Amino acid sequence: MNASDLDAWFVREVLPLEAMLVQFLRRSWRNRADVDDLCQEVYVRVYEAAQKEIPDPARPFVFAVARNLIINRVRREQIVPIESFGDLDALNIAADEPGPDRNAMAREELRRLQSALDALPPRCRQAVILKKIEGLSRKEIAQRMSISEDTVHRHLTEGRHALADLLYGGKSDPGWTT
Amino acid sequence: MDHVSDAQHDTALASAHAIRLAAAEWHDRRERDGWTPEDDAALAAWLAQSPAHRVAFLRVDAAWRRADRFTALSGSRRDRRFPALIWPLAIRISAAAAVVAAIGFAAAPYFVKSPAQSYSTTVGGRETLALADGSRIELNTDTSLRVEMTRGRRTVWLDSGEALFQVRHDSTRPFVVVVGDRRITDIGTKFVIRRDETRMKVAVLEGEVQLDGAQAGRAPKLLKQGDVAVATGNTVSISRKTQRSLTNELGWQRGVLVFDNVTLAEAAAEFNRYNREKIVIADPSAAQITIGATLPQNDVPAFVRVAQKIFGLHAERQGDTIVISH
């Protein structure tokens, strides 16, 4: 298993679980402010484990790691989570049912991209549109928006950061269902 | 997972937010002018510092790539299938500028006055367009085309790549596909056209089409179901194919490539249309091996495994290229 195969596996199998994982962590952990950190910690543990051996299928493994993490935290901090882990099994059952047809998936992806884009702050969205759709250079974006290239860099950094949260964390789309 | 390792992780992962932001910053900075080999080394060091850094970078990189679909969106944004896709800012971009941006045309924007809508797919992509007249166009990998619907005429320019057309016939409103200096006119039909740098291929799955040649005065050719015309320069050759072989060629609709007794070189060339990673068959004797297989079109590792395990060939990665040899 070389590094690029591992990375490709992570992107393909683990990242798409993020919306579900975040939902699980929110239900299982009292403090919502910790959820991003917990999610990241799950990722690190999954990634480290996968360096030795790729867990297949990925989904049960990712949620087992998440559950162990929560249990250890609970023990250590002597607190009781708000809800039990009862919904974990429900999450696993839905593992590999036949998906919707390709057209529907493509439409869903476009809809998701659209709502992610709409959710960006206005200036940041404009910079992303000029870059991604119009294919302008940074210099041209700076001229078009009457800002410096450093500010273009700030907007695009923010855009990348927000898009990752919106596209993977499902933050624009809280109504996630199977 | 004991307390010690938990504690270590906690320190390393003080704030996922900060790490994700840093990853986004690196990701964008990498594209700026003045990125040096030293910067590259600094990024590599940052990535190596913690798996948390690495996964955050992977995540932002994957999201940014997914957003490549925005290009497809820009072509589709006024498509009737997506009534909700109104772009608050993008909508102000003139149609002409959008055409220029989407097809990467080097001409000045004022030069392009066509009201045509352009659509494109990236390498490995596939999109279906449902046109207002009930016709459908399915775009295969790395394909660009433009559609213009007027009252008396439906015109599609296939600028590059491959597309399957299912045309709702209307004799008062011809459906014409323009490929370079050739034109294909529908006569009640399902057909697929592929355009490479040097040649064009039309395969008729149902019904008939008329193929008009490059030069005036030449009689148009009528292609019937099962006919495959290949046009190179000024010559056109027509052959008849079986239903099975036509179905094989349309494997891409299902996301697979069907190889039936083709050489490894041809199979590699097909794979390379769909993937950023490119396969190169380095020696001529390996290139001539013939294979029969059905493989997912994005599964480069599967292709490499076939070469290694079945034909005992050697595979070596060089950046984005996989070199296969004896």
Characteristics:
heterodimer; A: 178 residues; mainly alpha; 70% helix; 0% strand; elongated; disordered C terminus; B: 326 residues; alpha+beta; Jelly Rolls; Phage tail protein beta-alpha-beta fold; eleven-stranded mixed β-sheet; 10 helices; globular; disordered N terminus
Number of separate domains of chain B: 3
Main beta sheet of chain A, described? none
CATH topology of the largest domain in chain B: Jelly Rolls
Please report the number of helical segments of chain A.
Answer: 9
Can you describe what's shown?
The complex is a heterodimer of chains A (178) and B (326). Chain A has 178 residues and is mainly α. Chain A contains 9 helices and no strands. Chain B folds into 3 domains: 2-111, no CATH class; 117-245, Jelly Rolls (Sandwich), CATH 2.60.120.1440; 255-325, Phage tail protein beta-alpha-beta fold (3-Layer(bab) Sandwich), CATH 3.55.50.30. Chain B is globular. Mean pLDDT of chain B is 77; it is low at 1-13 and 72-114. Classes of the chains: A mainly alpha (178), B alpha+beta (326). Chains A and B meet through helix 1, helix 3, helix 4, helix 6 and helix 7 of A and helix 1, helix 2, helix 4, helix 5 and helix 6 of B.
Task: Draw up the topology in text.
The complex is a heterodimer of chains A (178) and B (326).
Chain A: H1 3-14, H2 18-28, H3 35-52, H4 58-77, H5 87-93, H6 102-118, H7 122-132, H8 138-145, H9 149-168
Helix pairs in contact in A: 1-3, 2-3, 3-4, 6-9, 7-9, 8-9
Chain B: H1 3-12, H2 16-29, H3 37-49, H4 51-66, H5 69-76, H6 95-103, E1 117-120, E2 127-130, E3 136-139, E4 144-150, E5 153-166, E6 175-179, E7 182-195, E8 199-212, E9 221-224, E10 227-232, E11 235-240, H7 243-249, E12 256-263, H8 264-274, E13 278-281, H9 284-287, E14 290-296, H10 300-310, E15 314-318, E16 321-325
Parallel strand pairs in B: 5-6, 13-16
Antiparallel strand pairs in B: 1-4, 2-3, 3-5, 4-5, 5-7, 6-7, 7-8, 8-9, 8-10, 10-11, 12-14, 15-16
Helix pairs in contact in B: 2-4, 3-4
